[in-house]
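ok so i was messing around last nite and threw this chain in just to see what happens. nothing serious, just curious
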Amino acid sequence: MITKLTLTMEESVIEQGKKYAKSKGQSLSGLIENYLKTATGPQQNTIELTPIVRSLKGSFKVTEDFDYKDELAKQLSEKYL
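result:
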C-alpha cells in the first residue's frame, strides 16, 4: 500500500536531494524509500567465504592473545626490509 508522508527539512537539503535523485534517475520519494528500506532492513554483517577459504577455516589454532596485525607487520617488515 502506498501512503503519503510529509517531511519537514531545510529547503536547501530538499533541493540537493532532488538534484541527486534526478542524477540517479529516481524521484526524491523513491530515493528516501530505498534509503529507509536499507537502513531498517536485516543487517548483513556476514561475509560469504569462498570455497578455498572455507576449507582452510579452523585448520590451525592460535592463542587468545594473538595479535594478527602485529604479526602481519612483523612478517612484512622481515620480507621488505
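not much to say yet. The radius of gyration is 24 Å.
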